[in-house]
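Researcher: Re-running this chain for the archive, since the previous output was lost when a drive failed. Same request as before.
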Amino acid sequence: MSPAAKAEAPAQPEQLMSTAELRQALPLATVRGLEVCYDPKKPVPVLDGVDLDLFPGEMVSLLGASGSGKSTLMKTLTGFAPATAGTVRVAGHDLRNLQRGELRQLRSEVGQVFQQFNLIPRLSVLSNVLTGALHQAGPINLVGGFSSAHRKYAMELLERVGIAHKAKDPVRSLSGGQQQRVAIARALMQRPRLILADEPVASLDPKLADSVLQLLRDIAVQDGIPVLVSLHVLPLALSHSDRIVGLRQGKMLFSAKSGELDEQSLKGIYEEDGNDVH
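Model: Regenerated structure tokens:
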């Protein structure tokens, strides 16, 4: 083709991203310039100028000493710790300007996993998982029990986390690692768009901790759900995270891919910070 012909040839249309690709490319949660002050009289905020993006399919670890602001950051993403300044958007919700009833909807879309499991000890494993669907159940379901569809899905989740054989057992009879798997299944029962895991393996031995974090990472990848997990153990964060965010004295020291960091580069976040708020 001559140069003139090339000049006259129509430009090829750019390949458009599919809806699925677009969703993967956009952050599910965005935090900019976040500041949180529990006591306006205190000059030092608990969080100060934090920026964070959470993308579908990734697992992000929060690292920092006690009092660095890890738990406060997670509470801000669900509205339990209101932002003093900055912007916070989660699953399309602007947490600085929530409409009536929107906070409840937001919290139903965020699954949470805790260090102490937060299960109901006397209830069965299956019943505990079903409580994750309470926001979906109407008055009839709450009185008369969950639907067969709910029960089927709960059993599927228990199978997925490897504990379906314990479905009828009271949750208090389970080991710590098993209870955390129940808690993860309960979070998935919400059909969440984001999962927050606050020190989920702090009370588990290393082998169980590794298996629980691998389960969370698999969920992030397979379901396209961002998972934000706070940890204290550096090797676990490096092994199971796509990205690591370091906090110290409420400030974000770094946000980098785990492959770009090592234990030596992370030690600075554990210097004494003097705060007493988590």
